[in-house]
Amino acid sequence: MSERPIRVLLGKLGLDGHDRGVKVLAKGLRDHGMEVIYLGMRLTPEQIATVAVQEDVDVIGISLLSGAHMRLMPALMEEIRRREISDVLVVLGGTIPESDEPALHQMGVHGVFRLGAEIDDIAAFIRENVPRKVG
Amino acid sequence: MTQCGESGNNWAMLAGKWRTHTYQPFISGHKERCDEFRTVSGEPVGPIYGPYEDWEDKAVRDLGFPGEFPYTRGVYPSMYRGRLWTFRQIAGFSTAEETNQRYHYLLRQGQTGLSTDFDHPTLTGYDSTDPLALGEVGRLGVAIDTVRDMDDLMRGIDLSTISCSFTINHPACVLFPMFLAVAESRDVSWKSLRGTTQNDAIKEFYGQKTFALPPRASVRLALDLVEYAAKYVPKWNAINVSGYHTREAGATAVQEVAFTIGQGLAYAEGLQQRGIDLNIGLQNMSFFFGCHLDFFEEVAKFRAARRLWARLVKERFGITSPKALQMRFHTQTLGSTLARREPKNNIIRGTFQALAAILGGTQSLHISGYDEAYDIPSEDAMKMSIRTQQVLGMESGVANIVDPLGGAFAVEYLTDRIESEVRDYLRILEQMGDGSFLEGMFNAVESGFIEREISESAMAYQRKIDSGELPWVAENIFKPEEDESSDSGLEFFTFDESTEEKQKARLTEFLRNRDSSLVAQRLQLVREVAENGMNAIPAIFEAVKVGATEGEVMGLFRNIFGEYQDPAVY
Q1: Chain B closest CA to A1's CA: distance in Å?
Q2: Rounded distance between C-alpha atoms, residue B214 and residue B442, angstroms
Q3: What backbone phi and psi angles, to 5 degrees, belong to B39?
Q4: Which residue segment(s) compose the domain that A83 sits in?
Q5: What is the ipTM of this complex?
Q6: Closest approach of chain A CAs to the CA of B375, in angstroms?
Q7: Structural domain contains residue A134
Q8: For the segment B466-499, what is each residue's pLDDT rounded down to a tens digit?
Q9: Tell me, what CATH number does A121's domain have?
Q10: Count of domains observed in chain A
């Protein structure tokens, strides 16, 4: 039995167009040997959760610089629960105030990364926290 | 243009001797900080630059004089000795009423022009009540759904004297008519209106990425606006060709200028195809750039962009009217260069970025708030930015000499180099359209070429930040031990969570009081002109005047023209 590469789904929720960071991360995680599925922007929570099931991903990474994370992340977490894929590691990046972090953890977001976060640190966080699946 | 080599005139010979006998021996004993020095955009730079062999010829040919072709030294003969650049800090959040209060605050601080940021639903053509707008109403900009919102936004503002800028693109064809309706209702002559609609449809697909419609449809509507404004609102800058967002998305200085000029040439072609005399048509076109951290590269970038634009439109379209040759531009210091850690350091970053824009000859300026990495700017951050502009403009003396860096060997070298590299890029874009920039830009968007180019540069930049090759104080060097932003002692903007409900209630109330059957009739006329290819602006004006919402008009266009799907290339 060999470990398959970590599969990461990346995308942006809502109408936010700031996609520089998420695209850089897509390349960066790929360079770290992960399989990256970049879905793009203007996605709904339903779309993200549906693809997460179809692609059997280990990680969902959401990038939000719109300030709407406290409205959109609960909706995403609900879709994840409904599809019974709560073992997926959920990581959020962007302009997220520290004061929102406890509430985000509470709703099941595992990692929060803000501006200035390094790719290596995000990759290391994913490796340490991802639930191991073997293929 | 040849830079002085190792032989030739006396200076060149001495420079060669200096390099061999003074510089090289010195640096072998005193190692330099880097093996190779590069600009932020990756251009290698040498230790010194000297005069050109044909220095005087070059000064005549490539520098010229302020207010004269090729405008390297500025578009106006006396530049800031006459009037300083416009202090134009952008504002936009929550409802029209709140943003209007911020406008009045900024004007009281000595701001000389207004500029508006819209929220994501407005930028992408959805009303505040649309399910897709969830969580984003009034969040990163002001929510404008109807002519009433526009009226409230401009309450107490004298539209005949204050120039108003709107960072709106695909829905500019709806918001500009709303603005005109407000002016009409106040008996302000359209001929007196000054300001800008960004209305740069193409860069939406790789820069700002708040597109609402597909490329061809959005360009058509953008040009409808230009044509209409030229006729009825002659002082209006109907299109603001923008590189800021492209740079913010990760482009280099060269890419920023190349894609921006590509956009400008594409619009020029589109206007020409409509039979518009570009000597007049280009007078209402202005530009917009970002300003990054590399001081000399940025100064050179602005100078190169201005010169190249004048040369290209002269070469390509035979433009002779000075105003049509002049690249007039707004500058915003780049938000992405500002750090989250120790945010007060951003004040000094903003100061020298602004200085670069001034020495580059900008016509107006926004200095991004020191709190950029946290949220939209607080009142205090914007006051700081205005004060910075005032100190630079009124105290430092930099505004008293025109193009004071002109003739600096290093700056002229960088200016030439950027101009020549931008030309290389433009050749690729032109080839992609078989000689047409309009087709070339469509193809470069649709094939994902531009997005891939930008994202390569964004990645290269990120690697240099992560590795420390590009130092970023308090972020990758001198990093504070405690990563607590709350320690900064600064107060950030706090968003009023009731905004969404407030705006939805405003819209619902407005819709109750309008004549719905009249709106439906007028929207039907919009549909007809959209389908038959006539200029859509007059019909949109009639529709929004009686209460059609932005989302209704844009929804109708989405039905006719379809929606654009982000290709998700990286």
Answers
A1: 32
A2: 10
A3: -75, 175
A4: 11-129
A5: 0.92
A6: 7
A7: no
A8: 999 999 999 999 998 876 555 567 888 989 999 9
A9: 3.40.50.280
A10: 1
